[in-house]
């Protein structure tokens, strides 16, 4: 007789398809049963997810410690460590918790990113940097979709990689992946995007300050260039403050503007995915993903001054832990063999997107304003 602790691959994946409702996608029939929950159901749910959730959190803790010791990207450590424990996702008690970490924990972490941003921070930059960021983001995603089609990588991968490069690196990749149509390659593509964008962001953190100096940019324009081009928030901060405090402040605000674009971009993708899936159903309507509602609500509360500094700091810390835990879980869902099989094309695409957004921004800051 099987117990609540017994699980297998098919059961775990069916169980967590109920989270499609959080993504603004069509709800799986299994989710109706999952919604009828009582105390015993919640106890059974906890017993199913805690082994995988505990493993994911442990890997996140180890990755964070190593990142602090060696001053390296924590996301990359979490991914690589997670991938070494891929066998835990093939069978056994950890599958359900790994699925939970890579979906629900991920979305909760993305929602908390909204606590970093206020409307005032964005508006004080002026119109020109905002226009540069919007143009760079839109054209990078468009370039990704078009080039991915030409390379036969699929437009979903182009949107995923373009959004990761154009918005905020690994966090954007995770958020966008959660609303894109699912395929057998979805998890592999997400991991590949996170790994590549993290490596490119680290290289940009080292080389872009030198490029800004070579271009003769002043502190403000250098901050705009760094904030509008480097992928991850941490690397933007590192690169900006390596030049001057003023450059670091400007770079951070510009980067937060890009992070703000996560909301409309992910919602737009979810809307079109919904419309494509439900287009033949009478009266079908797209639903707003719940984690994006949370993101927007936190931005609004922070802009209105209702979030105390203690709450903002706590939200940032929890968000970081959630995202690192989700990255570790995604790593466990992907093998080195799968990544090696993708070839050079995805990496070349993301390199092209990185060069494009850097070129667009460099032209804007040197010639336009």
Automatic annotation (TrEMBL):
Record's subcellular location? Cell membrane
Supply the alphabetized keyword list.
Cell membrane, Membrane, Transmembrane, Transmembrane helix
Q: Where are the transmembrane segments?
A: 45-66, 125-147, 159-179, 191-211, 256-274, 286-306, 348-368
Q: Which domain of life is it from?
A: Bacteria
Q: What family does the entry list?
A: Belongs to the UPF0324 family.
Coiled coil ranges (UniProt) are none
Q: How is this protein named in the record?
A: Putative sulfate exporter family transporter
InterPro entries listed in its UniProt record:
UPF0324_pro
Gene Ontology CC annotations of this record? plasma membrane
User: What species is this protein from?
Assistant: Methylocystis heyeri
Q: Note the topology in the membrane.
A: Multi-pass membrane protein
């Amino acid at each position: 007789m099987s117990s609540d602790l017994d699980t297998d691959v098919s059961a775990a994946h069916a169980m967590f398809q109920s989270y499609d409702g959080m993504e603004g996608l069509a709800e799986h029939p299994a989710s109706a049963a999952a919604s009828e929950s009582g105390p015993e159901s919640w106890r059974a749910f906890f017993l199913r997810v805690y082994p995988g959730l505990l493993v994911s959190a442990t890997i996140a803790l180890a990755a964070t410690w190593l990142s602090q010791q060696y001053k390296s990207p924590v996301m990359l450590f979490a991914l690589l460590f997670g991938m070494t424990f891929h066998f835990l996702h093939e069978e056994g008690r950890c599958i359900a918790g790994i699925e939970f970490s890579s979906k629900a924990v991920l979305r909760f972490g993305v929602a908390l990113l909204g606590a970093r941003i206020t409307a005032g921070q964005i508006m004080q930059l002026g119109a020109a940097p905002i226009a540069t960021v919007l143009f760079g983001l839109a054209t990078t995603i468009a370039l990704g979709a078009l080039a991915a089609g030409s390379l036969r990588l699929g437009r979903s991968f182009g949107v995923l990689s373009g959004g990761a490069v154009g918005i905020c690196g690994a966090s954007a990749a995770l958020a966008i992946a959660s609303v894109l149509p699912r395929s057998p390659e979805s998890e592999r593509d997400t991991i590949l995007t996170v790994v590549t964008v993290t490596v490119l962001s680290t290289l940009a953190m080292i080389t872009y300050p030198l490029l800004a100096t070579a271009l003769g940019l002043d502190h403000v324009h250098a901050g705009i260039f760094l904030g509008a081009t480097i992928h991850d928030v941490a690397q933007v901060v590192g690169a900006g403050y390596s030049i001057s405090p003023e450059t670091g402040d400007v770079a951070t605000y510009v980067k937060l503007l890009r992070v703000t674009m996560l909301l409309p971009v992910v919602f737009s993708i979810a809307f079109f995915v919904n419309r494509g899936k439900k287009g033949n159903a009478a009266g079908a309507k797209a639903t707003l993903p719940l984690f994006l509602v949370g993101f927007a609500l936190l931005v609004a509360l922070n802009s209105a001054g209702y979030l105390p500094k203690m709450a903002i700091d706590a939200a940032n810390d929890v968000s970081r832990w959630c995202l690192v835990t989700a990255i570790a879980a995604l790593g466990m869902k992907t093998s080195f063999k799968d990544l090696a099989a993708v070839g050079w094309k995805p990496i070349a695409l993301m390199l092209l997107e990185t060069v494009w957004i850097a070129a667009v921004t460099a032209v804007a800051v040197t010639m336009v304003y």
